[in-house]
Amino acid sequence: MDFFQQEFTKAMEAFQSQKIQIQVQQPDILQSLGISKDCYENLRKLLASSKFKDKLEKTETKDLKKYISDFNKLEANFNVTYLMICAMFGYDEKGLELIQNGADVNQVNNEGLTALMFASIFQNDDFVKMLLENKADIYLKDRRHMNALMWSVLQGYEDIVEILLEHNADVHCKTPNGLDALHIAVEKGFTKIVEMLLEKNICVSSKSLDGRTPLMRSVALPDSNIAKLLINKNADLHETTYDGKTALHISVICQNCKGISLLMKHGAKMNCKDALGMTPLMFAASVDNAQLMHTLLDFGAKETIDDVNKFKQNALCWAILRNVKNIAHLLIDAKSKTNIFDINGYSPIQYASKNKCPEIVEKLLKDKSESWHTSDEYLVCLLAAVEENDIETTRCLLNFQNKKHILSEIFETSGKCDSTSLFTAVMSGNKELVKLLLDAGADVNAVNIFLQSPLFSSVLEKNLDMTKLLVQTYKAKVNLKDYRGDTPLILAASTKNKPMVDFLLKRHASRHLTNTQGISAMMEAASSGCRDIVGALHCEGYNLELSDSQGWTPLMFASFSGDHSTVEFLLDVGAKIDASSNLCATSLIIACGQSQEKAVSVLLDRGASVNAKDLNCQTGLIYAARNGHKAILELLLRSGVDVNQADVFKRTSLMHAVLNADLESLKVIIQHKADCCLGDVNGITPLMQAAYMGFTECVQELLELKVPVDEANLAGNTALHFCSSWGHLDAVAILLLHNANPNVTNLNGDSPIMLAAAKGHDEIVERFLNCDLCDVNQCNTKDGRTSLMIATHFNHLSTVMLLTKSKVHVNAKNKSGNTALHLSVMKGFTDVVKHLLTVQNIDIHSENFSGMTPLFLCVEHHQYEILELLLKPGNDVKKTNRFGQDVITFSIKLKSLAALQILQQRCQISPAEKNRYLEVARRMSYFEIVDFLQQWKPSVNTQEADNIAPFTLQASIKKEPLPDIASMTVNNARSSNDHDLLSTSMEQQMDDSDRCSVNSDQILNLPIDDFKASPLFNLSGDWRGATINANIFTDRTRNCIIGKENTLSDQQS
């Protein structure tokens, strides 16, 4: 039913769209020109009362030159010259005087109009002659491409047209719309002017922009004389517009019978079609004009009566679609084809059924045969008539003689498809239609795709009269079930329809049936709070403990709805008060969960178990606390409920009140001796939860009850931890006033001030700083970080500034030996570094346990902006770390040219230092660094550095294989005891020009036994042309490089 309705509606909308495309004519394309003329008429009226025109009128002709300085000046307010004013008002003598005194006869205004055009517009033929005699240009065009001839034709001034034609005016001039003088004259119906133009051999077949010829315009006129003139001049009768319409189409659209007769007599073709396949007969069929139809039929249109357009619709379809009944009858009588289907799959009789045309339907039925059922055509007709509540058409369709044969075939192929019409009639509430259909054999118990019979529809529509008709008269079954298992009685109860329920019960509807979810009619009534329906459905022996698939009984549904009268009734008739659902919920728990105070009161008065729990161990008290229903809380507490009962997460009603920030409920529960120290499964107490939420009133209330202020949960967090981390300043202040310990740490080693610093809660940090008990230098028990380090780590500049103003130890180190400055450098927090450098006693040379100072970290982490900040005057750039390495050497080993460039600008080196740095770079084969260092000019005043190798290698007495340097990385090197040496193979260190016999070198990285005074090894050999003889002492030399040709002897052996 719905599918057909949608499809049929689409078809009708498609037709309406076609009708608009075909029927709507182009607007009068001369309209814009007419408006222009009206504008100049208004200008003439405006000028008539102006000083400009008054001056011209009062000035003597001989004095014009004396009083008018510039004859060709356009008056700004009117856009005309004096000559144009003369042309408008016919001042011939003054106009001639102006011309003789120098006025430009061809001067144009801003619209391109000349005096000749103004004279033509305002029918001043003498002025036109005078202008032409004074060499006015007859061929000039205005901005609309209109010349003087076209303006005179537009106004129908025959005398001026004749004058202009005598002076050889251009008859072929066209506007951008393709209009010439002939088009204008025909459109306006000026027969005499048309004759004059035709005498000048103007083109009779020219097309305007819309594709129309003068002949097409002429056949739209009631007078056919112009059309005759054009036809006599051999105008093409078969020429088409750009949408394919001929002159015959247009004459039919304009309902011009004279034009049709004229065209047909001169050989027009009746079978012509436009771009949409529309014939003249189709256009005629869409209007209620019998004379027009007869005219076409008389001239042979019957030959095209069965032609179809691109939508596969013939003329009969159009007549029926437009609901033109007289024309439809004419076409049927003329033997038009009736068994035709359009592009939407619908036939004329289907459209007639939809348009409430019983007479046409009856006439079309006579031509119907057994072909009905092939496309369900009959059923579509029947359904369309029923949907429109059209009794006459429905009766007509049901009474035709071949109906029984067709329906029997439909039953065999499609089942009870005709029930769709019955459903539609029932839903519309039209009893007469329903009777017609049922009397004709429709099945009252037929079901739709939802397994619902018409009775279901009448119940859902709450139409009791229709229900009585179906059940009493036509014996509809009252205990059918739809796809959800609902019966009509269940649906009536769910819609709160007491009269419907009473009637169905009298007709033996079963009150015990349930749907697929186990819900009965009584459950539906109880859930809706319908006490009267529940009473009607109850009878002796009714099982009140019958439950649905969730285990809910009628009493539970009534408790859910909160209808206390229904609850009382069910209890009076024996419903079990403490019966539980599949989730162990009792009626009391359900009522509390839905905040049904009256139902709760009734259940408590009747002795419901107040401490019953559901599957989640939640009692009615917990549900009331969750819902914040103070009245129900008081009812339950007065009934002796266990106030400390907890749910599966060990949350009591007090905890739920805190979770809801419900202070009133909280106070009620506390007054009944609730244990305020009970924690949940995570050890969180009400105080902690209130602190976490910033529920200060609750915090205050609980602290006044002397709850343990420093109690911790399973993660070691106290209430002060929670409010500090979440930024609740008021809660922090209250807890500190009640002597909360600010130095207690959680399992992660964090104190409250550390959590506040990590989140950047400055107000809370400041509150701790003002607390005498708070240790601002307390370290995290796991990683050794202080609050300052934590604030630095998270780039909270304002917090860092706040902490450094207090007694915080700015150079304190964590368990990795890093200070706050180290951390800020590694993270690249420039603003924090800037501030820390302003702090008194900040140590920029502080080393972590890896020997890394902030300067070293800048190089390693490419923080060059921070490096420049650290290299302020007074800072010793060449200060070495515990491994004897300075920042320049470190930069060389990390191949950080950018760092070296900054260091070059900020420090000076001696020649000896330069040589040592070059030696390091060469050994590392960093030739780009070598080039840079060679260009670094040392200072002669720089004191020689100590003659100590800038890097060392720790030797080992253990006889282990030499490590593969190729596999070593910066991190690997730093993880060993030697954090300084970064080297590659000697083969990579030398370029082609500096390569010697040494093919490869290896690095020896062995731990040294510092307790031995005698040399461990003796090294002798040749390296880069130099002889090396050296003893290796553990207290002076830790690194050595040996070439392939060198020898190493163990002095221990």
Automatic annotation (TrEMBL):
This is Serine/threonine-protein phosphatase 6 regulatory ankyrin repeat subunit B-like isoform X1. The keyword Ubl conjugation does not apply. PANTHER family: ANKYRIN REPEAT AND PROTEIN KINASE DOMAIN-CONTAINING PROTEIN, ANKYRIN REPEAT-CONTAINING PROTEIN-RELATED. ANK repeats lie at residues 111-143, 177-209, 210-242, 243-275, 276-308, 417-449, 484-516, 550-582, 616-648, 682-714, 715-747, 783-815, 816-837, 850-882. SUPFAM superfamilies: Ankyrin repeat. Keywords: ANK repeat, Repeat.
